[in-house]
Design a protein that fits this description.
The protein is of the alpha/beta class. The chain has 10 helices and 9 strands. The strands form 2 sheets. It has a 6-stranded parallel β-sheet with strand order 1-4-3-2-5-6, with helices on both faces. Helix 2 (35-47) links the parallel strand 2 (24-29) and strand 3 (50-55). Helix 9 runs antiparallel to helix 10 (222-236).
């Protein structure tokens, strides 16, 4: 497994792989890898011959008051995990490699509608930063397949729409959320939680499961379901950011006849913002 830092080195390595008729897979990450990321790598390895994992904490997708500086950077440990997983190339560019003229004035990819609301409401500009860096990574690597986690459900929808609208010749694939034994969705940000917060954190998923049961049981008074869950989360010690039911395909607000629903939540425990989601099929 090679770790490459420059775009030119990576392109040269990928040109050789392509000459050997290898199908290229890409798993974009911000590093600090956990089993959820490794599941993405495994998915890419099952479907392609040459898997590139990018590790880049993208400043363009962080707001002014967010955790860019404290975001965990653990390259050596990540490299060990990727070697064990069987990845072929780690692409770990610097900010200067990715934004040599700086981020001010850089071309932005903006995906309207699907980027609005939910995480887009509390993180203005976040999805422009994500779409722009993912667009760049897709252009740099030119993979046949790129794999993203479904924990960031809205992000995946934004990336799918961008790839579709810009006719990018890549298959975008989602991979299911990987959870700890107690149900908490794995996330690099879980490392910010105190022991007490970590004990409370699984209540977020439990709340989504309760909503799921109510929907499956036939309840359709959506606003009341959401309000009750919001009260329960608050009582458990969370500060809910949003809790919402959306059409799982369009991400538009749910309607009474909707068959595939996604329950989406973001909530703070102290200063740590956790997100999670759960899909419900009522077909
Ligand atoms: O999900 C992430 O880790 C990031 O948003 C991504 C897709 C790697 C873009 O920086």
């Amino acid at each position: 497994m090679n770790t490459l830092h420059s775009i030119a080195q990576l392109r040269a390595a990928l040109a050789r792989a392509r000459q050997d008729n290898k199908r290229i897979g890409l798993v974009p990450t911000m590093g600090n890898l956990h089993d959820g990321h490794i599941a993405l790598v495994e998915k890419a390895l099952q479907r392609t011959d040459h898997v590139v994992v990018s590790i880049f904490v993208n400043p363009l997708q962080f707001g002014a008051n967010e955790d860019l500086d404290s975001y965990p950077r653990t390259l050596a440990e990540d490299q060990r995990k990727l070697l064990d997983a069987g990845a072929h190339v780690v692409f770990a560019p610097s900010v200067n490699d990715m934004y040599p003229e700086g981020m001010q004035g850089h071309t932005l990819i903006s995906v309207p509608v699907v980027s609005e609301g939910l995480c887009g409401a509390s993180r203005p500009g976040h999805f422009d930063g994500v779409a722009t860096v993912v667009g760049k990574l897709l252009n740099i690597v030119q993979p046949d397949l790129a794999v993203f986690g479904e924990k960031d459900f809205q992000q995946l929808a934004v990336i799918r729409k961008m790839a579709h609208d810009l006719c990018l010749p890549v298959q975008i694939m989602g991979a299911p959320i990987v959870r700890a034994a107690d149900g908490l969705a794995l996330s690099s940000r879980n490392g910010y939680l105190s022991d007490e917060q970590r004990r409370v954190a699984p209540r977020l998923y439990q709340t989504l499961q309760q909503i799921q049961q109510q929907l499956v049981g036939g309840r359709r008074d959506f606003p009341a379901i959401i309000e009750e869950a919001r009260v329960a989360l608050t009582a458990a010690g969370f500060q809910p950011d949003y809790l919402d039911l959306r059409d799982a395909h369009s991400l538009q607000p749910v309607t009474p006849n909707c068959q595939d629903i996604v329950i989406l939540a973001a909530a703070y425990l102290g200063t740590t913002r956790l997100i999670d989601n759960l899909q419900v099929s009522l077909a």
